[in-house]
Amino acid sequence: MLNKLFSLNSPSTEQRFQLLRNFSIVSLSTFVLATSLLAIFYRRQAVHDLVISTEESNITTTQIFANTLWPRYGYFLSSTQSLSDEALVAHPKTRQLYKDTLQGLEGSQIAKIKVFDLQGRTVFSTDASQTGDDKSQSSGFLAARSGRVASQLDHRDTFTALQTTLEDRNLLSSYIPIRGGAANEEIVGVFELYKDVTPLVERIEQTQRRIILGSLLILTSLYGLLYLFVKRADYLLEQQYQRLQASEGRYRQQAGELEQALLELRQAQLRLVQNEKMSSLGNMVAGVAHEINNPVSFIHGNLNHLRGYGQNLLKLLGLYQHHYPHPQPEIQAVIDEVDLPFIQDDLPKILTSMDIGSQRIREIVLALRIFSRLDEADIKSVDIHQGLESTLMILQHRLQASPSRPAIQVVKDYATLRPVECYAGLLNQVFMNILVNAIDAIADKTENYTAEQHLANPGRITLQTSVIDQERVQITIADNGLGIPAEIQERIFEPFFTTKAVGKGTGMGMSISYQIITERHRGKLECFSTPGQGTQFVIQIPMQQPARPKRVRAEIDSNECIPTAEPAARITGQTQVVSRSRSAQ
Asked: Within 13 A of 469's CA, how many CA atoms are on the CB side?
């Protein structure tokens, strides 16, 4: 968990901020953008100034035309509606106007002149082919007719100018209103001038290039200076980052060691608790087994003598009855009082029941000793089936019928196994944990069953053993209980996780069982469960444990796998006790 926290908060080498690279990208992009914007701004401003100044020059030229030529040709130009385009071009006045215009524009930058009447017809043009063109819908003409000057800068690949053809030129065209005389008189026509401003535009472009070059030189110098500072800063940051990475690696390693130490401490604490429990349990079981075994052995050993004495006394009593069939009244009264015929019949039965009961107690004591294996702390070769049977013997009282349900069936399918090297006591604890859980699961499932449901689907536990690859033994314990929901199947081996009610389980039984199988026996413990149908636990351990250093066995267990004294001290219903009452007879 601590390692995950560090990995989430620490950026990788690819994710961390690249100062030098980002500075270069951002600064160069900014410099290029700033230079481009500066050049564009200058060009726009210079072109705007060029248009204004040229437009003012065109207005002056128009005024000169209006003052010098319009008085002589104005009336003619305003009354050409009746003339065709060809007649207008061939008219003497038009030719004279063309000559006067060429003479007046000699040496100027004017490339073309047009004159429009108020209807938008081109009544004069230095390019005779354009005479008669209709410009009534032109935006420039409409602006000039309304009293405003309209100018536009264009680039022409070819352009027919005064007595020549221009190529690759920049021309400024201006639509200028022609007034009758004074400036405030009405408009009598529209004048259009094309002025070659190519030298001025080239000067603007040359200045623009100088500005771009100068800006780039200045910004490059500034970038170089800043680059040195940023490179130094990036170097210092890289050193800091490497130190941080090294420190973080140490912290991550310490966190991993701490997490591992916490896990080992928790497991050690769990083992210590279970060691104490199993130590107390072992001492209790040993004491109980010893205390019960001594008197039971004494009773069992003397029953044969008691049976012989009883048979002799009954034989002697039979002889007395044969030879003295009519005893004295006082003796007859005692015979009637003690019911001598019943005693003669019941005494052998009592001795037989006592013999069966003592034998049963000896079997239970042996089962306790086999289950606990207190005298076998290290690995030994044992009979796995013997451990299963001893565990079933201890749990016999829970397998038997109760007022709420019939007896749980135990189906055994044992293979022929040779002795298996294992920690027998620990392995028996695993059997106990799984069988107790199986019994609880069946009890929970059949709690509300009717008699018919119990008969149709009785509780059943299946024990199966087999050999895999001649190297491993497999023990399968299956039940038809409630089953385990899918969402919690992955958590059943977690410490302190339990689905039982408070007070019925600590949640350590299956966790300890998993440690016993996987760590102590280097085996495998798996769980397969279908909710509503049952659960199957599969245990696999090597037939022969690898050599390892001798160590004291960790008696780990949980409350769920600690047998109480009650099963060991209780005589089951298999022992037949004959009552002395006549009703029992």
From this structure: 7
